[in-house]
Amino acid sequence: MLEILAAAERKLGDLTSSETSARKAIELFPKESWPYVELAATLEAAGRRSEAREALQAVTQIPELTEVFRAYIVSEIERLRSAPSRE
Asked: Are 53 and 81 in contact (CB under 8 A)?
């Protein structure tokens, strides 16, 4: 439920609330990937790419990830690393 709330808040432009919801979800579900991915999307939307990369890096530490999803996350980390910085 928190992932839906965080995504909706981000899409409505309320990045502060979205970040808060995503961080709360991480507290409640630290072994799930979706809160970190939503946090990364919110941080990227706020122009905080280095923090978004850190959130995605945390996803790579979750042992239950499929190799396909892990590869996707790594590609997103690389995309954020190579994107022009707005920070």
From this structure: yes
For 30-74, what is each residue's pLDDT tens digit? Answer: 999 999 999 999 999 999 999 999 999 999 999 999 999 999 999
Nearby residues of 22 by Cβ (< 8 Å), 6 or more positions away: 2, 3, 6, 35, 36, 38, 39, 42
User: What element of type H or E holds 81?
Assistant: helix 67-82
Q: Specify whether the CB–CB gap between 42 and 19 falls below 8 A.
A: yes
Containing structural domain, residue 45 = 2-82
Instruction: Indicate if the alpha-carbon torsion angle 55, 59, 60, 66 is positive or negative.
Output: negative
- What is the CATH number for 48? 1.25.40.10
pLDDT at 62: 94
